[in-house]
Predict the 3D structure of the following.
Amino acid sequence: MILKIKSLKKEDIKEVLNIALKTGASCNRKEAQKIMSFSLAPGIKPFNPNYYVLTLSGKIIGISGLYYDYEDPDDVMWMDYFAVEPEFQRQGYGTKLLENLVEICKRKKVRMLCVFTDNPGALKFYRINGFKVCGKINNYYGNKPRIWMNKTIK
Ligand SMILES: CC(C)(COP(=O)(O)OP(=O)(O)OC[C@H]1O[C@@H](n2cnc3c(N)ncnc32)[C@H](O)[C@@H]1OP(=O)(O)O)[C@@H](O)C(=O)NCCC(=O)NCCS
């Protein structure tokens, strides 16, 4: 089994969207498709995130993204569409995807990586990986909260 992390390509978008939607990492196919299409332009800047796909022997099993929010300081980055195909969860692949994002943050001299999440499984995953909760709004997505977490990058 060969594990690889590569930049998102146009031909990956359909498969990646299915993973994002089925895991609940996205709830809006149209918007996710739009932003993933923007991301194919070179570079990473506000309104132009970068996405990274995890493949196992050529099959896409995970997605992760990074972006700068406009008006944020340029040493803060955000995670986007972070998900592993359900049948491959709890096998260390989410950790691999996160390690890749942290390496990119280090290269870009980012001091803080932020994420919004809404579910207890992801919350536990992020806590284990050094994120702390810095804000929470209950009943934000229907009865689900919006939880803001951040990790200091050293
Ligand atoms: C969050 C997610 C990406 C983690 O991916 P993963 O491949 O399962 O993560 P790992 O296998 O690397 O997990 C590492 C550790 O995190 C914790 N963890 C991961 N998922 C967990 C869950 N659902 N419940 C409790 N703990 C969890 C465990 O301690 C796990 O180690 P263990 O399996 O040895 O106990 C994946 O669960 C997912 O796609 N969830 C649905 C989409 C989502 O919520 N994305 C985040 C949006 S912000």
